[in-house]
Amino acid sequence: MALAALQQNFHLLRQGAALLRDLDPALYAGPGGVGPQFRHCLDFYLCFLRDLPEGRIDYDARQRQPRLETEPAAALECLEEIQSRLAGVVEMDAHHRLEVKTDTAPDEPPASWWSHSSLGRELRFLVSHTVHHYALISAGLRRHGVEPGTEFGMAPSTLAYREGKLSPSR
Prior knowledge:
Blueprint: H1 3-22, H2 25-29, H3 35-51, E1 56-58, H4 67-70, H5 72-86, E2 97-101, E3 114-118, H6 119-143, H7 156-162
Parallel strand pairs: 1-2
Antiparallel strand pairs: 2-3
Helix pairs in contact: 1-5, 1-6, 3-5, 3-6
């Protein structure tokens, strides 16, 4: 199993939960709030977990639940549910083959909508996607004078590099 990628996802989800527990609801749902970014991250995890049993993950078929971007308590509850459900992935083989659909253009032929992937690759995608949106959340909070933490929105490879565990490539 792609245990490292799964652990990185759990780490990110715990970071998000910690931030949500302490975040002023006005900064979450108010004008320029970070709620839409959180909801977007949650949507991708929900698609992954919903579609994983069938082996065809459609990230374009997001539910986009408005409560998740306006109510931090609802987002926290969803985030905790995601962590619980994600724990079941531990038993799966990282090389388990999947078909994935995302960022589909309406003028593309349907045969081109799906790509081959694996469980391990999708877990790594979720890490990358979440880090990207956490970085946007972090920037949004800093504009309002809130410090989300030095690691929030930071890629695992950047953190490893800063700790001297990863050398610069060529």
